[in-house]
Amino acid sequence: MNPNLLSKLEILAESAKYDVSCASSGVTRAKTAGGIGNTAGWGICHSFTEDGRCVSLLKIMLTNYCIYDCAYCVNRRSNDVRRAAFSVEELVDLTLGFYRRNYIEGLFLSSGVINNPDYTMERLVGVARELRTTHRFNGYIHLKSIPGASEALVHEAGLYADRLSVNIEIATEKNLKLLAPEKNHESVFKPMEFIQQGMLENAELRKNAPKLRKFAPAGQSTQMIIGATDETDNQILHTTDMLYAKPGMKRVYYSGYIPVNTNDERLPMLRQPPLVREHRLYQADWLLRFYGFKVDEIVDDRYPNLELELDPKLSWALRHPEAFPVDVNTADYALLLRIPGVGVKSANTIVMARRFGKLGTADLKKIGVVMKKAQYFITCKELAIRTVHETSPEYVRRKLTGKKPDSSQLEIQFDW
Amino acid sequence: MIVFHYDKSFEGLLTAIFDAYLRKTFPHRLLLPDEPEPLFCEGTHTVITDPEKSERVWKSLEKKVDKNTLNMISYAWLSELPGADEVIFRYIRKTIDSPHSIATNFADDDVLQLRQIALKTSREKQRMIEFVRFQKTSDDTYFAAIEPDHNVLPLIITHFRDRYADQQFIIYDLKRNYGMYSDTRQVTEMSFTESELFDRGKVKDHLLAENEVLYQRLWKRYFKAITIRERINPKLHRQHLPRRYWKYLTEKDPE
Asked: pLDDT, tens digit, for every residue of B79-97?
């Protein structure tokens, strides 16, 4: 084996780490005779880095040489960084070696653009092809679709990969062009459409030939960088909403901007990546996907940004006290999900448990409801004495953020 | 207070349930045969494990509850937590006595507790599926040591058998001193009497396959390189990757 392998691996993992996606979920594939591995539909994380992120796939670049010069990217051509490239064989050996030791679920392969998009894409597809056909690898494969690659190549990629992704990177086209002059939204949406097209055509074909391999069975995902440009959360979440409306779009990831290129005046000077904002965006994303919220309920022109000190659901509840209190013993599931402190799991448990008798605060607590928040928004078996109506949204906000009221004003505290 | 003594086997527990219904006395505590009885003990009974009786209890449970609940009972048992057997006992009794299913009555303490205990086992099962790390030995067998809080090896073995259908491997529980060996055709339970092959879960160097050390180094290097240093968050790291599992994680080994 090549003695440079260690440093190569290091360089190309360092280059790939800013892509936050690492999911291995969405596909269940059984073992095959003579093949290696299988895929578990729920996704498996094998380790967690010291920044707390899941390591599920061997997330790596084929090469970090790149012809583009995107301001936000560590691998842009004007950067003076160590460059390296893997051969197909090296990557295949690494993936299988790691997989057999239960280090990973599979491969997440990306690449800098060398020569031209098609040339690069062909190499990515080549690795996936080798794994799937020669080695009959049944683990997970996530391929990056290179912006500008031809439809034929994207289609071939979809036949080997479980998931394909194209990163939109910046939520508005104006800012994308500012930071990445060689890219525009069309160059991102085109490959996304190729992927959609591939999925739809494949679904059609599979009606007559059910044994045909599924095209990108885990769909596609994308990523936006947060805080490198001046978008509001309103703009970001509306872009998200538009993306989720596309068939097969499974995840939109948010990546708090990390100043990798400090000498570019187009980029802001940040002391710390906007981690709290990123977290709030993920929470809003969850509200969109699992809690039945519409994007306009979370952000609009009056409230263009998510509050950093409160989660978006609580923030919504405080703006809409008229929706509360909710009676946990009678309200339907959709309404339960609106209560701050009640998640999908506890809402399900409440619906099941209340068939046997009325629930009280003690029961709710045991079930897993976060009563610290929920107490202001519910009624149950017991008399409610401190809901958001008996007190006020401002009072609840103060209680939950732990903020002292404005000291220049006298206030009479009614604490029950 | 009524206490039953039994041998702390699952069959024994089911036999105890059978006996209780037969005697029409229900224990408040379940103890080992030689465990001292509490003060104010009104009655004791020593259960003699009987496969026929336990079979009958299990069969009647199978008729009454769905597969999910049966699984939950097994998971709770494998948790090996003190008191889990008493929860299972009360849960089964309530199930038998109730005309309709109590499986989702989470306002009932035993129902909720059974689920929570089962969840603990289930969570660790998931973690073990994640954290098992194989070392390849010179005879092409992949070896992994584990030391789980709960007895999850029987629960994870099917996952590994399916995934690594073409490789021989051993997953060995050092805490309970037994392992499962898959020779690609079938899985057998085994235990090492002398552990000259490995030391604290690590296969001895001269028994490792040729490339094994390189792969371990590659993995460690990768694990380091993939970390975003600007975002380091030790608390979150330990929350996902509790320290008690670090012992057998290749990537947490010093390089």
From this structure: 999 999 999 999 999 999 9
CB A336 within 8 A of CB A291: no
Mutate to test the interface with A, among B161, B163, B185 (most CBs of A within 10 A): B163
Question: Does residue A147 belong to the interface with chain B, where contact is any CB pair within 8 Å?
Answer: no
Per domain, the residue ranges of chain B are 2-124, 132-252
Domains of chain A, each with CATH number or no CATH? 5-298 (3.20.20.70), 312-401 (no CATH)
A271 touches chain B (CB under 8 A): no
pLDDT of amino acid A407: 56
Three-state DSSP state, A108: strand
What's the mean per-residue pLDDT of chain B? Answer: 93
**Pair B118, B75: CB distance under 8 Å:** yes
ipTM over cut 0.90? yes
Inter-chain Cβ pairs, chain A and chain B, closer than 8 A: 149
d(CA A315, CA B240): 28
- What chain A residue is nearest to B223 in terms of C-alpha separation? A49
Chain B residues near residue A14 by CB distance under 8 angstroms: 225-226
- Nearest chain B residue (CA) to A1: B211
